[in-house]
Specification:
By secondary structure, the protein is an alpha+beta fold. It has helices at about 15-25, 35-45, 95-110, 125-135, 150-160, and strands at about 5, 50-60, 60-75, 75-85, 115. It starts with a strand and ends with a helix.
């Protein structure tokens, strides 16, 4: 197996979307993926990219990806958020996740960020074990808070 970790290109967007859909299926939320390959292309590869993505390529096929973007912490300063680290189900256990995480850590360190953060589902024990073995701290006393598109509209309707 010769896995290459490289920065994603615009041509990778369709395969990135397939990985995102595979993750959504694994997380039992297959109908929640709204993004399209065209949106990934526009958002990640235009003049002002919203994210950076690294892909794991094996035999000219993308078998994994890690998507990151800048955040800002009022306590720390510049941080990187790892939105998703995905490895195809049939390619897990081969060290691809480690290679992708290594790339994210090196990339983030070169940017001089003070922290890298991400979320993991509390029932995804293999991922939790993986991250803990890499030295990540799982902060179980924090809850993720979100407003989805409908929630944003409902909120705005109450204040306008």
């Amino acid at each position: 197996m010769q896995v290459i970790i490289r920065k994603a290109t615009i041509e990778d967007a369709p395969q990135m979307l397939e990985l995102i859909k595979e993750l959504a299926l694994f997380e039992e939320e297959p109908d929640e993926v709204e993004i399209t390959a065209k949106e990934l292309e526009a958002d990640g590869f235009g003049t002002s990219p919203a994210f950076t993505c690294f892909v794991a390529e094996n035999n000219n096929s993308i078998v994994g990806m890690a998507l990151v973007y800048y955040r800002y912490s009022t306590w720390k300063g510049k941080v990187i958020h790892l939105e998703d680290l995905i490895v195809k189900q049939d390619s897990r256990g081969m060290g691809i996740g480690t290679l992708l995480l290594d790339k994210v850590i090196k990339f983030s360190s070169n940017l001089g960020v003070k922290r890298i953060s991400w979320e993991v589902l509390d029932w995804n024990e293999p991922a939790i074990d993986f991250y803990e073995k890499k030295g990540a701290r799982i902060m179980r006393d924090w809850d993720v808070v979100q407003l989805d598109e409908k929630g944003i509209k409902n909120y705005l309707s109450r204040i306008n």
